[in-house]
Amino acid sequence: MESLISFKDADILNGESTVIYGLNMEIMPGDFVYIVGKVGSGKTSIIRTMTAENKLLKGDGKVCGFALRGIKSRDIPYLRRSLGVVFQDFQLLQDRTVEENLEFVLRATGWKERKAMDQRIMEVLQAVGMDTKAHKKPHQLSGGEQQRIAIARALLNQPKVILADEPTGNLDGETADEILQLLRSLNEAGTSIVMVTHNRAIFEKYPGRVFSCENETCSEVIDEGIDVVL
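Predicted structure:
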């Protein structure tokens, strides 16, 4: 089985500064992976490298068949279409309805046929339990509902991997738990998940593979006795 995401001896940048040296990481189909660590430890920089927002200048990296080192600008949109990205602050267009938010993404990624777009929008809204909210605007939804819409948006182009950057950071505990259950159900249906978090309770309650970032390194926690610094 071929990995979906791999890094070998990769240095991860934040701007011009190296924040993680010598990253080795392999994410396989069906994985649920946490990237954990203190604020500023490089977690989000790894996600931005996966989406080619941050350049990879040293080492090797590959995401869904695209080599990150030296990737051409014209290939980056195709790389990103193979990924779904979920943010802490939802990043929904506030002046558009839920349906219009999702349609905007479909049109931006090459969809043209109205019937096909309507069908796909309803499919992803049903997948996250929000099919009755299509005509609402984001300000009419709770934080948890907005995050469900953000996850629906990430699912539109049937990504192989969802990258979730602190997706529960702005949510209360009960709502965060609902979002984690949703991500787990998507994972069980076959979508790989890579989730950045600094919330220990999340990865203790919903186990998965854990990569811990500290002291300018990031490595997988294999021994359950190893303490994760948060």
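Summary: The longest helix spans residues 173-188.
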